[in-house]
Amino acid sequence: MYSEEQVKQLQQRTRELLSDGDVNEQKLAHLREVLRFHEYRYYVLSESLIPDADYDKLYKQLKAIELAHPNLITPDSPTQRVGSNLTKTFPTVQHLVPMLSLENSSNAEELADWDRKAQELTGLQEVEYCIEPKFDGASISLLYENDILVRGVTRGDGVEGEEITTNIKQIRSIPLSAPFSKYGIQQIEIRGEIIMSKKAFENFNELQAAQGLSLLANPRNAASGSLRMKDPKDVAKRNLDAFLYHISYYVTTDGHTLAIDGREGDHPMPENAPLGTHSGSLDLLWECGFRSPKEEKQVVTGIAEVIRHVTDYEALRDTLPYEIDGMVIKVNSLALQDQMGMTTHHPRWATAYKFKARQATTRLRDVEFQVGRTGAVTPVAKLDPVYLAGVTVSSISVHNEEYIREKDLRKGDTVIIERAGDVIPQIVQSIPEGRDGTEEEIVFPRHCPVCGSELFKTEGEAVWRCINIECKAQVLERMIHFVSKDAMDIRSLGEANIRRFYELDLLKDVPGIYGLNFSAIGQLEGYGKRSIENLQAAIEASKQQPLYRLIYALGIRFVGETTAKTLANAVSNLMELKDKTEDELQQLEDVGIKVANSIYQFFHNEQNLELLKQLEDLGLNLQNHKKHNAGTDDTPLHGQTFLFTGTLSKLKRSEAEAMVEANGGKLLSGVSSKLNYLIVGEDAGSKLEKAKKINTVRILTEDDFIQLLGK
Ligand SMILES: NC(=O)c1ccc[n+]([C@@H]2O[C@H](COP(=O)([O-])OP(=O)(O)OC[C@H]3O[C@@H](n4cnc5c(N)ncnc54)[C@H](O)[C@@H]3O)[C@@H](O)[C@H]2O)c1
Ligand SMILES: [Zn+2]
């Protein structure tokens, strides 16, 4: 739709408009042109060229001009309609009631302004509001007739959307039928947001990365992109979720139509019926089996309480299992909502309070290549430092060669970066349209940047590796991992010390940790008698760490903490692992072909065996003491395997897991025929489904579990 030349011009114009905050009507045409362009990129191509906050800024400039000059408003101004994402992939259908956008507020002042307008329109001094999270995903509308889901539609341009019923049916939190008739409802249109939880997003990307496939940028893009996939099976794989938060229209079983959301109806609004208030409709949806923000919602009176609540909630943002980008504040009474009405763009009875931006634009200056403990070479992008959601970001991992190619990253590129939740920052995309020809291709090295030896790549893998076991980078990283918190936990010997001792030739490998020359260290600046004593004691104490910690500390590929525990429990002495075949290893919980092979290789490598011998001679514990104790009467769960899924309400997950282990049970990380008990909390997902298909798995509630322990 836009030529390359036009795109360049529009980008240039965008930059000019952003850097010039002046609000004057000369800018009107340019603002509209630029906003239309970015809406097209965002909604239709799903490839925005600027962060949302920049778009919002321009949109607000346009609004301000139009407010000052209402005569200049045109029906096709971006402020007069909802941005459209209609494509030709799916049939287009009409929503029963248009799906509008929301007005935005980004601070307390703007909320107060909005509240003032609400007071005017309702004639009330204090308005009752219902506040709920603004889920960051893609909106949909669902239609149920005679209790059956008959269609699902994207928002589209607000009036018409794309019919994606089959895809919607892949989402497990959307019931295919719901008992609306119990409430006298024959037909109902409801709305909500399709989201991808942080966990599902991580899992999905992990799988993609393992297969060398491209990663999704953020859960939001993931959700909206998934909805319009051609194969419903691909939709199912993404483990999407849905929050339903709005009833836009319904017809009662006796044929009345009710006016909700500005639609004409012949039935008066029920005063105290559950549908008299927005919060009541959330309860009703919940009762009908939908995941509505019933628990998340908060009803308050007056804007001061609203401001307090949204500020508090913003602080919780990272602790939620899904992404939210703000809060939505809605007038609670549906009668008042009706009275307030709507524009062609948004309802007047709601506003979105947007949280601090988590996207920013910056420049990618250079790429450095780091060598990890297993020799994997990771490219790290060096950026012009940019402040983003509480931290200054100046470097970001760009994963692997494939990723760089997929994202078409070049040195000198302008890039959009994002820091979603507690996830580490990511480059969402580069902006090729911003190039001026001086950008340079990123060339992946063929030799280790640290030791110079040739790099190798295993077929089907995305990473290049340095396989020189003596490679300085690897030696250092191995030692750093060995002493780390979840491994041998030698706190006073941190990364900085290891690097320093290594540079000074006081430490050259893992066994060297147990033969440190403390009198030499004592000569170094910064080491007093006390710190030397502490260091010595910590190193000595680590020799008695339980076996699983040592196994984890060895840094065997694919052996994380859980597998390390499984391995430790399978032997009474570490060296027994050397005698296990790959087949035998695979019999262990959670040990698949790849993991078994890696363990087997490790224990059949002369250098590794030599290392273990050295560690034993140095006095490290290679025995599994726990195993000898297990199986006695006071370990009632001996030999039983457990897995938790969903949110527990009485116990913390970590507590419950500790109880299992303390009673001799074992924890698994996935559902398989080796699992004895699945303990199911709230919102259990795929694990529960899978467990139901295996007859031997016993499914327990949290209470059952507590009872089982006889507590
Ligand atoms: N970067 C760009 O170039 C660009 C271009 C166009 C739009 N945008 C972004 O898109 C936004 C406009 O998009 P929009 O019209 O979808 O508006 P929006 O995302 O700001 O808010 C409206 C949407 O919020 C969602 N929502 C989530 N939880 C909700 C809840 N509890 N109740 C009601 N609604 C809820 C609904 O899907 C609704 O459609 C802009 O603010 C901008 O940030 C960016
Ligand atoms: Zn190397």
Report on this structure.
- By secondary structure, the protein is of the alpha+beta class.
- The strands form seven sheets. Strands 2-12-11-3-10 form a five-stranded mixed sheet. A five-stranded antiparallel sheet has the order 5-4-7-8-9. Strands 15-14-13-17-18 form a five-stranded antiparallel sheet, with no helix packed on it.
- Strand 17 and strand 18 form a beta hairpin.
- The radius of gyration is 30 Å and the shape is globular.
- About 2% of the residues have low confidence.
- The chain binds nicotinamide-adenine-dinucleotide and zinc ion (ZN).
- GO terms for molecular function: DNA ligase (NAD+) activity; metal ion binding.
- InterPro entries: BRCT_dom, BRCT_dom_sf, DisA/LigA_HHH, DNA_ligase, DNA_ligase_AS, DNA_ligase_CS, DNAligase_adenylation, DNAligase_N.
Short description:
The chain is α+β, with helices and mostly antiparallel strands. A hairpin with a 4-residue loop joins strand 8 (240-252) and strand 9 (257-258).
